[in-house]
Amino acid sequence: MILDSKSPIGPLAEKWTKHKFNSKLVNPANKRKYEVIVVGTGLAGASAAASLAELGYKVKAFCFQDSPRRAHSIAAQGGINAAKNYQNDGDSVYRLFYDTIKGGDYRSRESNVYRLAEVSVNIIDQCVAQGVPFAREYGGLLANRSFGGAQVSRTFYARGQTGQQLLLGAYSALSRQVANGKVKLYPRTEMMDVVTIDGHARGIVTRNLITGAIETHAAHAVLLCSGGYGNVFFLSTNAMGSNVTAAWRAHKKGAYFANPCFTQIHPTCIPVSGDHQSKLTLMSESLRNDGRVWVPGTKEMAEKLRKGEIKAKDIKEGERDYFLERKYPSFGNLVPRDVASRNAKEVCDEGRGVNETGEAVFLDFRDAINRDSEDAIRARYGNLFDMYQQITGENPYQTPMMIYPAVHYTMGGLWVDYNLSTTVPGLYSLGEANFSDHGANRLGASALMQGLADGYFVAPYTIGDYLAQIGPSPIDANHPEFAKAEKGVKDGIQKLLSINGTKTVDHFHKALGHIMWNYCGMARDAEGLTKAKGMIQELRKEFWRDVKVLGANEELNQTLEKASRVADFLELGELMVDDALDRTESCGGHFRLESQTPEGEALRDDENFAYVAAWKFMAENSPEELHKEPLVFENVKLTQRSYK
Amino acid sequence: MKLTLKIWRQKNASDKGGFVTYPIDGISSDMSFLEMMDVLNEELTIKGEDPVHFDHDCREGICGSCSLYINGHPHGPKQTTTCQLHMRSFSDGDTITIEPWRAKAFPVVKDLVVNRSAFDRIIQAGGYVSVNTGGVPDANEIPIPKRVADEAFDSATCIGCGACVAACKNASAMLFTSAKISQLAMLPQGQVERMSRAEKMVAQMDEEGFGACTNTGACEAECPKGISLTNIARMNREYYSASLKSENV
């Protein structure tokens, strides 16, 4: 299959406007005859469901949480980018587009990214109109900050809880449509499969998490807004329930999976404290604006530190290695996430880690406190410092924070074209669940922007075009494909319940996480990846032989929910490894040890790898087929990133 | 640490339920409370016993899923969410009693899991500004004094966990409801629907079976996000002024 991105031809700045004009419209009187399913109620899902309902479509919205307000978008801290140029500092739609393409290390599609930058300004207007309490200046206008090393201040924020406030805004719009009877809400309901008829998505199969009832829902279009798959690593900053199941089951029904190996590892997380750890907590990277990252200059001193013989304050200035400032004098502590993360791993691998496990570096606010006062630092980061103290029991005003990288975001996801359609007609993917806008590395404060752009301003247009073409005649919910998909889901559940082995679901999830982190994490090479592939295959076999899932289907059964998600992670993990093996270049968050500059920086290979890797599922336990979408750059010139 | 856990077990909504005691050992003080529950559940699963069901998701104090009533306090001894409570807040040898939220409007689903959809219905009754996507003014066309924006944010920070209801002897949902009414009453965007919002949300709150407020202040004391009682005073003012002026009455 030739992957057609359906990017409109013509000048970059006119593509979206032209495309909207060329899209077919649905007659207003006919809209109520169309049913649309939205899976997931995070920023992308809630905004899409609300906007489609406002247009007049009949929407069903599904989430596994007990309320749509709890989707994991709620945990985003830092902010949301928009090319408003309110600060008069030289920002523009083109600059945001350019920064996003460059930040993604030239592995994203120009047309999609430009549209993202273009609609970013509408998002802020929309959220303010909903009553989202963004930070403001004394004159009453909106405040901005520079984020993640951007040279302009384009990030809008609501203290350290921007994701929460944006999601509650989208949730309120969704709630209004529920009250209007335009959206039917299905909380505590998990999507288990997509139903396709003659190659088109025509509905889904769900499991009611309270009663275990397996149900089918027919619709004219299905939108997957089910988030990222970072939990394949077991430990990540994702919520415990975040999973790949909806996307993965769609993949197995024909939707190609793009760039699965592109994961983002965030540098400022609270380090692991022991084997019991269930998740990792991120602290906003705005901390790097004032904190200085360092480790002891020597291994010996780090060892004393780890044994508790000396404390951070005993280490003199000359004995400290501020490794980011040393290696990257012009960007210093504000280098991009992947560079900061990789360097932290490097010094820890050298034996200079600073906590008991040897996997932590200092983030020190001593100089900032001396320069600006403790009160000034408290005003900027008070809530983050409190959170750190609550979790670790240490006071970061007095002793330096300890941080270590953790999996945070997945740039890969379901392949989509310019219309956000997957390779299955009628099946769309929005937000983190798709691969579209961030290339090999996402910029800070751009995830919220993309989720809301897709949901409020892109999908409502592109889906209309599709619906107008297929017509409003009802979907036959009695088509044999529904019964077939339902049976497949029931059989899968019975299989899990019948194994009754000796090891818990978490045992397998942790084991998979270790493999992924060690061999498909911050640095990858052919040898490790090949080894990981074998290990995952073994683990998957063992899972299906020896996992212990208690209870029945016909009740609230959290172990069963988890088992079904981990089963999918065990398949996805192998595909991630295959993708990482195929891409022998380094780019963005994907660092192949074999592809480095003489100074040890990531070395991209544009001649051979300027493509999107889109994988097609073939059959259970069989290799997937790789399809390539060539990336054509008509507007930006490809350069090697340098932060020296 | 070695602990004794007294946990409420209830098979489903119609089961009577009761406490079951579990001894647990080898708990590190660095663990979060929910990680301690994970350890217990791993042990129970290996033994072939049904693990204890509880709601949890983000485990960083913002999604509002976790909802354990620990030793007589929602979210336990500290003013935080259960997921941000660490075992260093307990001592070796302690007996810890764990229950679900107790309120008529929050029926138990299983063990420690309750149904909080009443909160969603209160928001559906009017917790929004009725604007459609698109066609809104430029964001900076609505200047809002910083003090007002900050105060609205303080109300908007509610995570909808329901600790206020669990803490209240009347199982009142006034702190939750008033936080949303306050946020939108303070902001210029919320003015148009200000009166009908207060009327509709209060009516829905009553319909769900939540109790009345008797100004005890337990909700404020237990709220993990520090939502202030002032919100309830503001909601009462909004409600009374609406009942005098509103055209709906």
UniProtKB/TrEMBL annotation, chain A:
One of its GO terms (molecular function) is electron transfer activity. Signal peptide: none annotated. The active site is at R337. It catalyses: a quinone + succinate = fumarate + a quinol. GO terms for cellular component: plasma membrane. Pfam families: FAD_binding_2, Succ_DH_flav_C. InterPro entries: FAD-dep_OxRdtase_2_FAD-bd (IPR003953), FAD/NAD-bd_sf (IPR036188), Fum_R/Succ_DH_flav-like_C_sf (IPR037099), Fum_Rdtase/Succ_DH_flav-like_C (IPR015939), SdhA/FrdA/AprA (IPR030664), Succ_DH/Fum_Rdt_flav_su (IPR011280), Succ_DH/fumarate_Rdtase_cat_sf (IPR027477). Residues 509-643 form the Fumarate reductase/succinate dehydrogenase flavoprotein-like C-terminal domain. Keywords: Cell membrane, Electron transport, FAD, Flavoprotein, Membrane, Oxidoreductase, Transport. One of its GO terms (biological process) is anaerobic respiration. It is a peripheral membrane protein. Its cofactor is FAD. Residues 36-448 form the FAD-dependent oxidoreductase 2 FAD-binding domain. NCBIfam families: PRK07573.1 (NF005749), sdhA_Bsu (TIGR01811). Belongs to the FAD-dependent oxidoreductase 2 family. FRD/SDH subfamily. This is succinate dehydrogenase. The lineage of its organism: Bacteria, Pseudomonadati, Bacteroidota, Cytophagia, Cytophagales.
From TrEMBL, chain B:
This is Succinate dehydrogenase / fumarate reductase iron-sulfur subunit. GO terms for molecular function: 2 iron, 2 sulfur cluster binding; electron transfer activity. Belongs to the succinate dehydrogenase/fumarate reductase iron-sulfur protein family. PROSITE patterns: 2FE2S_FER_1, 4FE4S_FER_2. Pfam families: Fer2_3, Fer4_8. Its cofactor is [2Fe-2S] cluster; [3Fe-4S] cluster. InterPro entries: 2Fe-2S_ferredoxin-like_sf (IPR036010), 2Fe2S_fd_BS (IPR006058), 4Fe4S_Fe-S-bd (IPR017896), Beta-grasp_dom_sf (IPR012675), Helical_ferredxn (IPR009051), SDH/FRD_Iron-Sulfur (IPR050573), Succ_DH/fum_Rdtase_N (IPR025192). It comes from the Bacteria.
